[in-house]
Every structure is written in structure tokens, then in C-alpha cells.
Amino acid sequence: MNLQIGQWRIDILSGGEFLHDGGVLYGVVPKSIWEKTQPVDEQNRVHLAMQCVLARNGTHTILVDTGHGDKLSPLDRKSHGLMPGWALREELIRVGTQLEDIDTVILSHLHWDHSGGATSKFPSGIGPTFPNATYYVNRQEWADAVSGDITVSGGYVEDDFLPLEASGKLSLVDHLQEIVPGVQVLQTGGHTRGHQAVLIRSANQGLLFPGDIAATSAHIRRMWCTSYDLDLARTRQVKAELFGYAADHSYWVVWNHDKDCPVSKVERHPKREFMVVNNTR
Questions:
Q1: The domain spanning residue 75 has which CATH number?
Q2: Which residue in 259, 219, 252 sits closest to 235, CA to CA?
Q3: CB 232 within 8 Å of CB 225
Q4: Strands 125-128 and 134-138
Q5: How many other C-beta atoms can be found within 10 angstroms of the C-beta atom of residue 9?
Q6: Residue 81 belongs to what domain range?
Q7: Which of 92, 111, 206, 271 has its CA 20 to 30 A from that of 79?
């Protein structure tokens, strides 16, 4: 699936698929309500995607998030209900991109399903998957991930990100920092304290990658948040800010864990705040 955002060709690529507990994904929302939007298996798990964004403009080749990667043990793969292999490698080949072509990797946050593919196993040890890329991580996210403080560091796997620092490929960024012209990160907080969204703009067009602020298109609802969110109030607040901006500018929104609706536009709604429109499904 691809879009054209001004000078940017945007490809929505699979970083893998997995099964996840529905109660965790939808938090305080009763199952009798959320199950109408997404069926579950016999273990109460829902089938989710790990959408990544490849953006190319002839000068830069940018990857937003990396999926689960290829380092997980067979036991971990079974636990997460992962599909075989690591789809992102094949997806990149399909759209004519080699690992070496990517010069910029932006990670929304450092949980395993977003940053696992940032590093890979090599004969010499674990190192950056994309050898010519600089990896951009929010400064607060990095501090929390390496802190050892269990109140903020849960969900991180050190092999996914510590080798980036050791290789000299890591760049820490702050709220509203421009990575390359037309590509900006926005520290949202909410899901993790250093979680960041990504905004790509060109020629009065744009695409918003909100990451786990809204895991699926169903999470466009203000109260629909995951149980993993560290700051539920902040997640709910920032949804209104992000979706309001996307709606007012008619920007595309990527739903990074939505298998059936990877990208859409949104509009304001008088009764439901926002609604999904122009679904590319």
C-alpha cells in the first residue's frame, strides 16, 4: 500500500503480525463493546499488525518503526503468537529497498514490537539492522529504557536498542525536532513518557504516525486506551490534539497495530469527537 505526500512516496509495510490479549489492548472498555470491532480467539487474543512506514523522496530513505525483528527466541515467538519469519525484510525487497538504502530510522518508542527490528544478530554479535542509518529516539524514552526503574522501564528489551549506542548510530531527539526537512517528531507521552509521534508534510499534504497513542482505528475514541499506557489522562488529551490537527489538515493517519485498516483520514464528528473516513481497506 502506498501514498504520495508531496515529494514523499509513502509505503505502509508490515513489520510482522501477532496475537495479543484483547483486554490489555482495550483497557477499561468492556469486552462486550470492543469485541464488536474485533473478534477474539479461544484465548481472548486479537490478531494485530505492526505497521511500519517507509518514506522516500530521492534524497532520504526513512523508516518509521521496525516491527519485531528476528532475535526473539522460539518460546517468545510462541508467547506473542508471531507469524513465521520477519515480514519487514521481504516487504522492503518488494518495494525495491535494501537494508543498506535506509539512512534514517525513527522509533516511536522502544517496546519490542516497535524497535525489535532495529537490531539483528550477526556472527560478530548483535548490531544495527540498517548499517547506514542514524536511529532517532526520544531523549526521555532513552533515559527511561536504560534507567532500570521498573515503574517506567517495563516492556523494553535491551538488545533492541543498546547496540545502537555502542555502534555510534544513535541520535537522541526532543519534542518538535525536525529530523530532515518535512519530517518532524512530536513527544506525546501517554503510552510511555518518551513516546513520540511522527509527522511527514509536503506540498500542503501530510501523514501522521501516532504510534501507540492509538493502536488501531478503534482507538480513535478518547477513552479507548491500552492497559500499557503509563499516563492514561495524557493519552486521552493528546489524542484530541493529534486527531484534531489531522482532521483540520486532511492528513492521513497510520494505525500501526490495525491489520484491517492500516491508514485512513479522520474527520471531526459532533457526537463522537472524531471518525475514520477514506479507509484504504
A1: 3.60.15.10
A2: 219
A3: yes
A4: unpaired
A5: 16
A6: 2-277
A7: 92
pLDDT in tens, 2-47: 999 999 999 999 999 999 999 999 999 999 999 999 999 999 999 9
Place of cell 519534542: 175
Alpha-carbon distance 59 to 81, whole Å?
Answer: 38
The count of structural domains within the chain is 1
> CB-side exposure of 217: number of CA atoms within 13 Å?
22
pTM for the model: 0.96
The per-residue pLDDT for range 97-129, each reduced to its tens digit, is 999 999 999 999 999 999 999 999 999 999 999
Q: Look at the alpha carbons of 239, 242, 244, 250 in this order and tell me if their dihedral is positive or negative.
A: negative
Residues composing the chain: 281
- Sheet containing 45-56: give its strands across: 2-5, 8-21, 45-56, 61-64, 104-106, 134-138, 170-173
Does 280 have pLDDT greater than 70? no
Residue from 163, 207, 265, 169 nearest 64 by CA: 207
pLDDT in tens, 136-172: 999 999 999 999 898 887 789 999 999 999 999 999 9
Q: Which grid cell is 227?
A: 492497559
Q: How far apart are CA 169 and CA 154, in angstroms?
A: 24
